[in-house]
Amino acid sequence: MNCVNESIIEEFVLLGFSDRPQLEFPLFVVFLVSYLMTIFGNLSIILVSRLDSKLHTPMYFFLTNLSFLDLCYTTCTVPQLLVNLRSLKKVISYSGCAVQMFMFLALGATECVLLAVMSFDRFVAICRPLRYSVIMHQRLCLQLAAASWLTGFGNSVWLSTLTLQLPLCGRCVIHHFLCEVPALLKLSCVDTTTNEAELFLVSVLFHLIPLTLILVSYAFIAREILKITSTEGRQKAFGTCGSHLIVVTLFYGTAISMYLQPPSSSSKDRGKMVSLFYGIIAPVLNPLIYTLRNKEIKEAFKRLIARYEKKK
Predict the structure, then answer these.
(1) The whole model's pTM is what?
(2) Which of 43, 100, 139, 196 is most solvent-facing, going by the fewest CB within 10 Å?
């Protein structure tokens, strides 16, 4: 099947892990378990945050947004990946590829901004505790969350449109397990230097700028924590920030290593591994990080279980 132009393209071949067929079944099991854990973990956080009135705070509102985002993140890639791992014909339709690329790009950009918003919330909570409820009022929280989603999806509309307008040549074979902008650019039969420059610019904007804001926020937070004299007070302050810091390190570390490094001979495998991590593994780890390190969520789970048992 040759790519001539988008009007006659019906499907793409996703090579995925077909170069290592002995790994396909073990990977299928790992990804299936990871996907089920992602659904269970993130749905649990969403439900407990909504059902327990003590968690109706800005911190858990933004955490709910992150959990919902992680659910969408994995759902736009893992089901298709699981199907292809157990199929001889590893294909995805043109429309399916376009939607997957759009959603993956949009959700990734949204998460970059949302993590910065969550760091601002922690900054206000620790550095301006007496004015926290006044500053982080419901309207501002809704505006910040909406800005995160609209910015991410607006960016994806722009980049996806530019990518899908490129004429494609040769075989419609994508050396990846999902449809991403860099993978589709390699199929184009025209010069994609401008597109690659735009992708790099967007990567800088959505990775380095939010990361800089996060680091600045935590610099102020660290300075404020060092002023706390009691050990218990410091531990409580670190506890509210520790989970978020771990999530930020996982997400930004892997995303930057993929998009902001120069190409090399191992780019294909590196791209697959990094995409696997921040697109599949990170959404599994996020709810574990927040539940294992967060006393409030643990106590909320206990209250919900106790309430359920009382009704029985």
Answers:
(1) 0.87
(2) 139
